[in-house]
Amino acid sequence: MRALLIVDMQNDFLPGGALAVKDGDKVIPVINKLQEKFDFILATQDWHPADHKSFADNHSGKEPGEVIKLGGTDQMLWPVHCVQDSEGAQFAKDLNRTNWKKIFKKGLNPLVDSYSGFFDNKKKEDTGLTAYLHAHNISDLYVTGLAADYCVKFTVLDALKEGFDTYLIADATRAVNLSPDDYDESLKEMSKSGAEVITSAAISF
């Protein structure tokens, strides 16, 4: 059985948001159209406490884009984004949510970031997504959303490690692109790891 997973389609990642992904809003109609083809639809939601240590504002003298050590591992510092119950953390208003089965919140622990929809960045906390997919006999996972070079990529890589046949829908994602080629490099990395990179037009079941 197959499922569509919509990653972090939240206001702060859209144009005008705190951590805006260029053209992030352009994937909304693509994702809405894709949802018509799936009976099983899930989503992830960045849901940070205000004191999250990935926020540059929570470190004196630090700016977004700087890398620090957090709990012994490298941590990119970000603008304050997707704070719990804020407008920026809400899903895009034009995104169809009618048939979603479940939303998996991530990034709740202020001491560790969480890009993947499956685990935090240290692989110590589990969102429950794997168990939920297994409980519903999902074998094929089609991944969309924001952003291709961070949360989407790490979700795809973890899905592969968890044993799911994983598809990245290239026209249903965009990248932060801190470096200009991050989108292309992310797709290459996902493909090399075993994901099938496809377009929405190729889905015809």
**What's the CATH first level?**
Alpha Beta
CATH superfamily: Isochorismatase-like
Question: What gap, in angstroms, lies between the N and C termini?
Answer: 12 Å
The CATH topology is what? Rossmann fold
How many distinct domains?
Answer: 1
- Number of distinct helices: 4
pLDDT < 50 runs, ≥5 residues: none
Helix content: 10-25%
Q: What labels describe this entry?
A:
205 residues; alpha/beta; Rossmann fold; 6-stranded parallel β-sheet; two-stranded antiparallel ribbon; 19% helix; globular; hydrolase; metal ion binding; pyridine nucleotide biosynthesis; Isochorismatase-like_sf; Nicotinamidase
Could you describe the 3D structure shown?
This protein is an alpha/beta fold and 205 residues long. It has one domain (2-50, 89-202): Rossmann fold (3-Layer(aba) Sandwich). The protein is 19% helix and 23% strand. It has 4 helices and 8 strands. The chain has helices at residues 27-35, 129-135, 151-161, 182-193; strands spanning 2-7, 41-46, 67-70, 73-76, 100-106, 140-146, 165-174, 196-198. The strands form 2 sheets. A 6-stranded parallel sheet has the order 5-2-1-6-7-8. A two-stranded antiparallel ribbon has the order 3-4. Helix 4 links the parallel strand 7 and strand 8. Helix 3 (151-161) runs parallel beside helix 4 (182-193).
